[in-house]
Write the structure tokens for this entry.
Amino acid sequence: MTALTLIRHGETDWNRDRRIQGSTDIPLNDTGRAQARATAALLRDRIDLGLPVSIASSDLARARETAEIIATELGIGAPRQYRGLRERSYGEAEGVGVDEFRERWGDWYTAEVPGAEPWPELRARGIAALGRAVRDHRRATAPAAASLIVVSHGAFMREMMRHATAGALPPAGERLLNGSAHDFVYERDHLRLVAYAGLVA
């Protein structure tokens, strides 16, 4: 069993302006960097730093820098990067504002956006990437019980939560906040949500 904490990256200018990022590589802004430091302070109280702790992230700059800040604040090793932990690609919708998205394509989950990654493919990619990150973490920290922190993206994390809870969480229309941390257990290649933003699921 591996304790797994999924964290949404800190804020970017596109987050602030409510524009869809997807695979577009937008950096953190200063608010996002402060959020990463605040998340590290939260993790310091939630994770046993007396045991080995690993951190992994998407290779996109906003997730990578969030993970680097957290690692520095916690005094743990540098993050491993995984392309498979990237945000969903939104195709023609990248750079578009949220309101315009709804006007052009409709509902978030049923919209057919040219070039966008299908939700089932995102789920399969995400589960595979988390499995790889967990296996690498276990090899690096065995035989100790240890925690893995993963910094990723909003839509990616929503889909992992939907998979782990059979669609029960997160609630429809609820945003995952930048810097929010959600606790999972990864056991026998299965993902289970333990705490949703600190609330027991």
Observations:
- The two ends are 18 Å apart (CA to CA).
- The longest helix spans residues 119-141.
- Helices lie at 13-16, 30-46, 61-74, 98-105, 119-141, 154-164.
